Amino acid sequence: MGRVSTETLTKPETTPEGTDTTDDDTPKMFHYVKKNKIAESAVMGTHVVALCGEVFPVTKSPKPGSPVCPACKEIYDSLRPGK
């Protein structure tokens, strides 16, 4: 298997981060994670926990239109704004 790569998106207190990758190191999808953990993970290499439970280090930022984990999106959409 190839290396695992991640990326980041944003909304209230969570942000999508990518995990699964393709052969060209582009994540297949992004996950929502706590926004305040993204920079720490990117700099220190610590792992973040996505809303769906996926655990990974942040290595890339998402681009507009990047695919988002369906489980994370469902959880995120069910949260009240600002929570």
Automatic annotation (TrEMBL):
A Pfam family assignment = DUF3039
Alphabetized InterPro entries for the sequence = DUF3039 (IPR021400)
Q: Where in this protein does the record put region Disordered?
A: 1-27
Annotated Low complexity bias: 1-19
The identity of this protein, by name, is DUF3039 domain-containing protein
Please name the source species: Amycolatopsis mediterranei (strain S699) (Nocardia mediterranei)
